[in-house]
Amino acid sequence: MTRIEIEAHGGPENMKLVERDIPDLLAGQVLVRHEAIGVNFIDTYMRTGLYPLPSFPSGLGGEAAGIVEAIGEGVDHMAVGDRVAYCSGPIGAYASHNVVSADTLILLPTSISAKKAAASMLKGLTVQYLIRQIYPVQAGETVLFHAAAGGVGSIAVQWLKALGATVIGTVGSEEKADLVRNLGCDHVINYRTESVPERVLEITGGAKVPVVFDGVGKDTFEGSLDCLRQRGLMISFGNASGPVEGVNLGILAAKGSLMVTRPTLAHFVATREALENASNDFFAVMSSGGVKIGAPIEYALADAAQAHIDLSGRKTTGSLVLIP
């Protein structure tokens, strides 16, 4: 098989395409031949060492979709030829093949292509745990979602609208503003030209919002707190601008007894049942048309480094996939 490897944490230039033998299958494992591979911000965190990798050389990526080519002993809920997807590892999805625990694989509905699954499963399950588990958004509520034009944001805007929420989304350009308006976003704030807290105050008539979904991190953290009403919840789920550091907990009391959580998807799909429930919820809203996944931007597997450069530079909208 071919795969992308790195010898140490660092920049995109460390990513090399190599050939490796396919490992032997152990009990409970499945060999998946990839048709499409998801590219996500968490992959860049692992490459740089923000989320340290356990050993080197190491593969990258934890999301892909493809065809089952072989199954190990004890696997009885899928068969060779099944269409599957996964988004919770193991690390090494940037490859033509990967050996995966059968318990982390989800069978794909016939209506969902491998490219759309690889482009959306991690992001879709992220949105699912944010708006359906941590803070179950109700019809009529007004919420703030940062980076609304990104891969997670574009799914979130659509799903929130399907739930009947009023959505305030932030973007960094007028082009991205047009994109999220077309997705149904009710109010769009360009954070490069406008004050997000001031605009939220204006939009809500001074009431502010009960919840902020923030995958940007360092650059938006304090401003997000200023958008929350008393006892509001700040969900900081990503670090696109760098990690949040040096937080004074007293600020939360001073700004209205606010609550903050820093979750990760793995803890919300930690069991087979939880993974299936979250996946079925996401596939259902896709099948109903509540969430539409656009054609992802495609890169060859050999061009994975360029995909990281473009993603980190915020030069993309929507989702990115690698094609082996």
TrEMBL record:
Gene3D superfamilies: Medium-chain alcohol dehydrogenases, catalytic domain, NAD(P)-binding Rossmann-like Domain. Keywords: NADP, Oxidoreductase. Residues 10-322 form the Enoyl reductase (ER) domain. CDD domains: QOR2. It holds the Pfam family ADH_zinc_N. SUPFAM superfamilies: GroES-like (SSF50129), NAD(P)-binding Rossmann-fold domains (SSF51735). One of its GO terms (molecular function) is zinc ion binding. One of its GO terms (cellular component) is cytosol. NCBIfam families: PRK10754.1 (NF008024). This is Quinone oxidoreductase.
